[in-house]
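dumping the sequnces here before i forget
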Amino acid sequence: MMIGFIESGLNSVRGAAAMFPLQPPAASSIAEGVDKLYLALTGITLFFSVLIFSIIFYFMVKYRRRSDDEIAAETHTSMVLELGWTIIPSLICVVLFVWSSTLYVRNSRPPAASTEIFVIGKQWMWHLQHSEGPREINELHVPVGVPVKLTMTSQDVIHDFYIPAFRVKKDVLPGRYSSIWFQATETGTYHLFCAQYCGTNHSEMIGWVYVMTPTDYAAWLAGGEKTESLAEQGQRLFIQFDCGSCHVAGGGGRGPSLAGLYGKPEKLASGETRVVDESLIRQAILVPNSVHMPSYQEIMPTYQGQIDEEQILQLIAYVKSLGSEERNGK
Amino acid sequence: MSELAAHGTHPPGFAHQFETVGQQREAGRLGMWVFLVTEILFFGGMFASYTIYRALHYESFVTGSHLLEVKFGATNTYVLICSSLTMALAIRSAQTGKRKGQIILWLILTMIFGALFLGLKLRFEWYRDYVDGIVPGINWAYNGPHAPGVQMFMCFYFFMTGLHALHMVAGLGVLTVLVIMTARNKFSPEYYAPLEISGLYWHFVDIVWIFLFALLYLIGGRYPGS
Amino acid sequence: MSEHTEQGGNAGHVVPVSTYVLVFFALMAGTALTTGVAYIDLGRWNTVVALAIAVTKMMLVVLFFMHAKYATGLTRIVILAGFFWLGIMITLSCSDELTRTWEIVPKGWNVIVPFVSRLF
Amino acid sequence: MSTAQAVPAESSVNYLNANYGIKSWLLTFDHKRIGLLYLASITLMFFVGGVPAVLMRLHLIEPQGALFEPETYNKLFSTHGIIMVFFFLVPSIPATLGNFLIPLMIGARDVAFPKLNLMSWYLFIIGALFALYATLSGGVDTGWTFYPPYSSSYSQTHVVAVALGVFIAGFSSILTGLNFIVTIHKMRAPGLTWFRLPLFIWAMYATSLIFVLGTPVIAVTLLLLGAERILHVGIFDPAVGGDPLLFQHLFWFYSHPAVYIMILPGMGVVSELVTAFSRKKIFGYSFVAFSSLSIAVISFVVWGHHMFVTGQSVYAGLVFSVLSFLVAIPSAIKVFNWTATLYRGSISYEAPMLYALGFIGLFTIGGLTGLFLASLATDVHLNGTYFIVAHFHYVMVGGAVMAYLGGIHYWWPKITGRLYPDLWARIAAAIIFIGFNLTFFPQFVLGYLGMPRRYAVYPAEFQVLNVMSSAGASILGIGYLIPLIYLTWSMRYGPVASSNPWRAKGLEWTIPSPPPTENFTEIPIVTEEAYNYPVAEPRKYPSAPGVARV
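..and the predicted 3d for all of it:
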């Protein structure tokens, strides 16, 4: 009887929690860590708010003015108290800083073996492009339990790619690549939002993320129209723009051979050493002279205006595939 | 205002809210210095942007810098230094109670140097830049190397020198007022605060140019092959 | 050297004409020097030298023409505050703008040197 | 300290009745009248900025939006933000109470530069007219943050007019700050050393530092933005190598300290109120004073926490995170010291004290939720959501506006020479406190659940919390209207106030209410510390003559 009562009570609490969720679904590998920190912060906030509120309330009642001519009793500034409430909050802040920064730095680096998906934001929709070829708009299908890295850019203004259930968010900027990664832990359907104001229909730049089991995901990839992979599309562009006349495979051309270039640190004419990544390849296509290599002449023309963000991504995928082929060959 | 009588005779230029002349003078001086601090940060916003973009697009900025002619920049630096000297001497004349003719002479000389600076800038630099088509947003026909970066450099060049020139024009207006005030015998060794404060402003504008000259004209050097 | 026109420390300091003229010639010489140095190949040091000369010229103007040498401590604090805040703005924005491409966490001087050297 | 002669306000000449007519107001150099000019203009701006807020909350009752097209909604939140931040919160306490009180509190006849002071007001009005023109002629839809490239290349609205308005109003701030700094340095009465100053003066000094050091940067940034928009040249536009994040750096270099422009004066007001209504010296005077200065300084090195998710470098993120935590400490020191001041005091609960206590509570929550945003890992999730909206409203509305209202109520008898009905004032304070919490607390939850801000339409699951928030907003709105009514009423019909109706300490309470134009017939000589309330236990508080109470 009693137990049943408690159970029904618990059920109604659960019911209320379903109606009034206080927490978004947690469906990625980093969500738990973030939530723990959030909970700790909430605890600190509650503790100090309650502390201050109750002390004030207690003093308000205890020391209320009882007659119009009443005067206060003397108190003296206490150095111990002052130091106490300087040092204790400082220590709490140090702990919080170390905790949150460790979590952040760890979360900011994708695992090496991540599936790669490209994102292009434009007013007011998300284009998503899988390496294997399929494209999506405002929908993203990902397998559960696999690290996924998103490389993102914008065609116009600043957007922001936000999946609350994964606790990931990053601005999507025009003119450069930003990236985030996540590893989904629960299958299901989750919100995808644009979280940086981007104009009239900002609030409609939303979509859904479908987290599927690996088998479902494989079936989804195989289904639909048969499309070329991103690298294959890039290869067609490479031929179309006749890039191979200078970037001769195996070297010896007027430009460097692109095989195996991706991921390698390269010394540039400016004296700087940079790892060949998406941003560098993008820059090399659009503003070639800014990143040219010392042993070659500054003869590559800019492709600014002749090529859109999507095509650049295809070329990048192609260059990356050259790298992996070479390594496979060894 | 009514209680001014309590302070005895009314010294020239004395304002009612102050208790002593010294207090008023110090307030004026401090006020101007604080204003100059806001000016440092006003130009500073541009200097910061310039510094960052220069670090990010070094070669473009050097290319852009070479579109400017050092001889005009240097000449204008000399001109402004002269105007700073004459301004300092104008204040000194007032401090030491020289005849008003002498103060006016130094002030007018300062104005002539100031106007010369603006004239040179307008005729030999901005006008030629316009003719040559290197004024972003208005007449842009540059098609040499590093075009986007050079355009950005030229933007900063025109904003910074333009704002500086606006400050010069404002300074010339202030100097005109000072000449009139001097002619009306407003100043004496006891009261020359407007001269002194305007002098601070004028020297500040000079300092801004010293940095503009170094940053815009000389970066990356002018030696062959730079 | 100090010649006060009024009682107390409020009065303006009268700087001798000779000092003004000396400062003037130093400024002119500085301008000639900085222009000349630009035509000599010093690599990165060109910018450093140009800025160093500009800072020296500024100091001369501030100290003598603007009488900061004879000013109160408060005035000096005000001037320094201006430059300090400019420094904050430039340093902290650069701390983002110039470290975005960093891949590996550099340690110690490895952080400072590439950071500073990119500015010149 | 020269003793007060409580002169009946009616019979004496004061700054209000010294002369009459529009001209005597529009050309006045009297800091008290300029303070009132500001009071009138920012009250107007408060309601101009409040109307869009009400409309927004109404619109958000339904997930699909009850009233407007997204385009209109975007203009509403932009107008609300721009008007409230640049034309209400930034000038609120400094320009009204600061102008009115600084000379009175330091025993001066006026600010150092009265003409400049009037010019500040005119600049403010010109700036406000630009902003109002832009609003009425079609509005602006960039948000108050003006991020390029949206604002420079994509928005079709009146960005330039608004930016110009903010630019001009910025110079009003700069001149006000300059005036205050010089006034506080050079115009203090004999004997009034820095450590005898009321804490309101310390707070205003710290605020003025931010005005002077921060505002020029936003001015030049908006200038660059305007040039980019008009001339179509690339400065922040990535299409020509510009960096949109550089704009954000420069923008927040001012706009983060600007948050402290809003809250520091509020902290100063609360220090005055807490001491006056507990009749006690402040606990830890020098700690409260120096925490104001350190907040002003630290506020300039934390701006990057607005950019943790923008693609700012990880290293800069770490630097800004640790610096952001730093600013929590002086804020905590203040809250603890105010609380400790109450200990063994003689506390009464007139309306100003209710506002002050409300401030402490709401600011505590607002400040502590700031820790979530200084922490990198949680900020990633919360940035750009309603959590941010709730956090800064707790600080700026729960904090700054509560303090502003408290201050207005506290000094109202000094300003107008009249008392307002205290019961109504207490009711209004309670309504505002409750309405505020109902409006903004649900938004913390909304934010954690992931609802992004600036959304004209939103997923249906967020509706319950949005409706709660809107319901609270209607209470809050009514709460703000009540003081407007009874304060206006009291100007004509309120009982005449004595020179010191609260029996408070401070030079401003030693002169008649309203004060004469020249403030002090004789400049006082100060011989004691601030808040030197009598303490010896058995002695009765000396009765001030002519005390009138409601």
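DSSP finds six helices and two strands in chain B.
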